[in-house]
Write a structure and sequence with these properties.
- With 425 residues, the chain is of the alpha/beta class.
- The protein folds into four domains: 162 residues, Molybdenum Cofactor Biosythetic Enzyme, Chain A, CATH 3.40.980; 44 residues, Alpha-Beta Complex (Molybdopterin biosynthesis moea protein, domain 2), CATH 3.90.105; 88 residues, Beta Complex (Molybdopterin biosynthesis moeA protein, domain 3); 69 residues, Beta-clip.
- Helix content is 16%, strand content 28%.
- The chain is built from six helices and 27 strands.
- Strands 8-5-7-6-10-9 form a six-stranded mixed sheet, with no helix packed on it. It has a six-stranded mixed sheet with strand order 17-14-18-22-21-19, with helices on both faces. It has a five-stranded mixed beta barrel with strand order 23-25-24-26-27.
- Helix 4 crosses helix 5.
- The radius of gyration is 31 Å and the shape is elongated.
């Protein structure tokens, strides 16, 4: 069996910086109904075309009054106002309330002309055709003025902003039925290896079920991508290149898993330079060293390790920022928190960065790594830390800055944090 040595390994931060520099956010746009746009990013700045509310309206159920008519009201000396009608939310503006009068008004109803306050219904009693008020109200009480929420011309959404339920609600209140969003990044995932069988297929001696399509596909979809997965390709250089070139035609990002190292049947280091401009082969990181990337005229292609944990670990710190950038999101999609280790962790002394998956429980971080081929290393993890090169073994109780993996990327991250008065890794 022939082996080829790696060349100079690229430091992990440099590899990520190179990939981000070669990542162009998608330029495609689509117009969606507001109800379908949650979680997408706006491709246009949207300004309100009218004020909200567009008229003065009640913010409580009660009685519209002229505030000065209630001056001096008290339980011993209540003020009596004559009822002059009802105002519902859909009532056309135009009714008038004069001093010593009151109109019943529903929440959202247009304030009658002359009225300048609302007395809530719990604070009055009705006696025949009169409303009895036992406390004064001030001008402006329980009403919303024109444009109190936002005025005409207010920017409701900026380009690249995440469309959350409140932002979509503001667009609806402004009368917008649709919103223009950036198209989803198109991501292809292509495993290769003679030993791989699709889940559901019968295994024969020496074969295993392929799992990177499922894990990387889930990661990409959770970051907003449209994903196309391909059946495993056997270890044949020409066949692998043919499928890669075909997959590139419909991908903004193509992830090829397996065949990325230096063995006799690792064909990606030979194929990738023929596709375009090779960015690197080999990253000084554990797990995940056998990683390479090429920039083609249309597609960024990353060759990933075949081992499931190495592959997904690279997905978290290396691929996720690229996916987020493609979707017009931040280049670092993970939040951070300082956490204390619940157990020591042996870090190999080397010039490599180290990815350590963590399970945060009860304010303590527990390392979960079991080996680069064991996907269960990451099953309980809801955070990870990327340790710098040369970091010595971590001690129990040492504080590290973990990157958090919220649902659906992992199980829920506890909200409890810790003080950061100790040395950070």
């Amino acid at each position: 069996m022939k082996m080829r040595p790696f060349g100079a390994l690229l430091p992990a931060p440099r590899a990520l910086a190179l990939l981000l520099a070669e990542t162009t956010p998608v330029a495609r746009t689509e117009t969606l109904p507001l109800e379908e746009a949650v979680g997408r990013r706006s491709a246009r700045r949207v300004k309100s075309r009218h004020a909200v509310p567009p008229f003065v309206r009640a913010t409580w159920d009660g009685y519209a009054v002229v505030s000065r008519s209630t001056a001096g009201a008290s339980p011993r000396a209540p003020v009596r106002l004559r009822l002059v009608g009802d105002v519902f939310a859909e009532t056309r503006p135009g009714r008038t309330v004069r001093p010593q009068e009151a109109a019943a008004i529903a929440t959202g109803g247009p304030l009658p002309m002359g009225a300048d306050a609302v007395v809530i219904f719990e604070e009055v009693r009705v006696e025949g055709a009169e409303v009895v008020i036992s406390a004064p109200v001030r001008r402006g009480d329980r009403i919303a003025d024109v444009g109190e929420d936002f005025r005409r011309g207010t920017t409701l959404v900026e380009v690249d902003e995440l469309l959350t339920p409140p932002r979509l609600g503001a667009l609806a209140a402004a009368g917008e039925p649709t919103v223009v969003v950036w198209g989803r990044p198109r991501v292809g995932i292509l495993p290769n290896g003679n030993e791989l069988r699709a889940p559901g297929e019968r295994l024969s001696p020496g074969t295993i079920h392929e799992s990177n399509n499922a894990s990387l596909g889930a990661l990409a979809r959770a970051l907003g991508a449209e994903v196309t997965t391909h059946a495993p390709v056997p270890d044949d250089e020409r066949a692998i290149e043919v499928v890669i070139r075909a997959a590139m035609r419909n991908s903004d990002l193509l992830l090829v898993t397996g065949g990325s190292s230096v063995g006799e049947r690792d064909y990606l280091p030979t194929i990738f330079p023929r596709l375009g401009r090779l960015l690197f082969h080999g990253i000084a990181v554990r797990p995940g060293k056998p990683t390479l990337a090429v920039r083609t005229p249309s597609t960024l292609v990353i060759g990933m390790p075949g081992h499931p944990t190495s592959c997904l670990a690279n997905g978290l710190w290396l691929v996720a920022p690229v996916l987020s950038r493609l979707a017009h999101g931040p280049s670092q999609p993970w939040g951070e928190r300082a956490v204390a280790l619940g157990a020591p962790y042996d870090v190999p002394t080397s010039n490599f960065s180290t990815v350590v998956p963590l399970e945060l429980r009860d304010g303590v971080a527990w390392p979960t790594f079991r080996g680069s081929s064991a996907i269960t290393s990451l099953v309980p993890a809801n955070a990870f830390v990327l340790l710098p090169p040369g970091k010595p073994a971590l001690r129990k109780g040492e504080v590290v800055v973990a990157r958090l993996l919220p649902p659906p990327f992992a199980a829920s991250v506890p909200s409890t944090g810790i003080a950061t008065g100790r040395r950070k890794a």
